[in-house]
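Run: sequence + flavin-adenine dinucleotide -> complex structure.
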Amino acid sequence: MHPITIIGTGLAGYTVARELRKLDPNCPLRLITADEGHFYSKPMLSNAFSQHKTPEMLITTPVEQMAEQLQAEILTHTLVTQLEPQWHRLKINEKSLTYSQLVLACGAKPIVTPCTGTVTEKILFVNSLSEYRYLRTALQKAKHVTIIGAGLIGCEFANDLQEGGFSVTIISNATYPLNRLVPTSVGQLLQQVLQERGVTWLLGKTVKHIAPIASARYQLTLVDNQTVATDIVISAIGLRPQVKLATAAGLTVKEGIVVNRYLQTNMPDVYALGDCAQIEGLVLLYVMPLMNAARALAKTLVGQTTAVTYPAMPIVVKTPACPIVISPPPKTVDGQWHIETQGQDIRGLFYITNTQQLAGFVLTGKMITEKMTWLKQLPPLLKAHCH
Ligand SMILES: Cc1cc2nc3c(=O)[nH]c(=O)nc-3n(C[C@H](O)[C@H](O)[C@H](O)COP(=O)(O)OP(=O)(O)OC[C@H]3O[C@@H](n4cnc5c(N)ncnc54)[C@H](O)[C@@H]3O)c2cc1C
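>> structure
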């Protein structure tokens, strides 16, 4: 019998493998990953430095132990180069492997900052354990770090590296941080708190060019010709689902690999979840959605076809200087924020236009204790529906 095969050993790949093993301890199982395959919690990457955590300390279960626990074959440092869904086969260069069912858990890759210059390849991304290792090495000789992007990851790194003793500048074309998720007042509060701690914000600005200068430093030139000299540039302008393999194999791909509520792609026995997948139009690059998807998919893989459901899923922003919890309203919902502010404690409630129906919330400071109260009032993001 050919193995159920999972491409990817991130949180999505390993969670579906674990859930599968709870239901079927014996079916042949293979995982394939381009990286080292150790189990770690990726969200830790953006608050590990100030806690003096080395990459090794972030590994909760080494790959050998994962293979034993899961009773699975794990191929590490192995890039799948082609899918042949019509033959139930995948390729690793010239070598072919046959699967019974295939799960794509290929993650997302960082969007490259569009700017010119001969040193653009020196821009760092931190989306894997090995990239975190590389960042830590680069930081050994650095004093000043520039972060491009003021979304969740950019702000978390700014807080962490400032706390870790670096001088930090954030550049973003947005006019306030977390602008895609929170109302202006919350973004401005985060901006003010980090600024008071020494973070420099260059908002509403775009990087045009990066050039090397003396002593292994860089000079960034912005579109308005302002310049910033720095030791390290981290790009955190967003992530895009990894869809290359799927696209080449003829799977339906929009922003992510398109799957239905059963996590099925348009090809028989091929499924997708995690950062690479688009489920009923939703591309959610967070941990909670992939956990829900993994539980449903494991059942489907053992023959108990199960639709994924999403409850409302709050996001805890890892900026300890300014604690924030967000349950962002769905993009398709039309409504308004109602904000109450008491110093640094903000409660933002997003109501659907002309209704009393809550569709999202944001809480800062002491208001965070209200999380469960508001969460209970939110409708599920993907409701259960009949098979
Ligand atoms: C710095 C940072 C902080 C974050 N903080 C939070 C947070 O606080 N809360 C939250 O909910 N989410 C957070 N996230 C998002 C969350 O970590 C991701 O949604 C989640 O880890 C994605 O898991 P994944 O398994 O889908 O993808 P990944 O972890 O990216 O795994 C992809 C896997 O696919 C493999 N792969 C890809 N292509 C191939 C190929 N062709 N052949 C073989 N292997 C391949 C890779 O090697 C890897 O093993 C954060 C993300 C980052 C980067």
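>> summary
The chain is about 20% helix and 30% strand. The mean pLDDT is 96.
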